[in-house]
Prior knowledge:
The chain is an alpha+beta fold. Helices cover 42% and strands 24% of the residues. It has a 5-stranded antiparallel β-sheet.
Amino acid sequence: MKPFISTLTLVLGTAFATAALADGDVCMATGEMKAALIDWYGEAPVAEPSDAKEQLWVSQETGTWTLLKNFSDGNSCVLAQGDDWMTGTGQDQFLAQLQD
């Protein structure tokens, strides 16, 4: 019975992982995520994480932005990203615009 359960677990695990990748979710350890945003995009956080543990990262130079969700397990996921950041827009204003 163990081989069947192990095989079933492997198949189901692969199916869920494939579904997550198909959705375009980008998740990784929070330290790695922050390093990638700094090194690859020149982004920096514009505020401390919100009560929902969401944090906006922005590059004033290139105009790119990334909204992260930080989890208590030490991982972070990209909720949204884009170009043409509006200088002077704060995290609270931005989050309110995303919810509209």
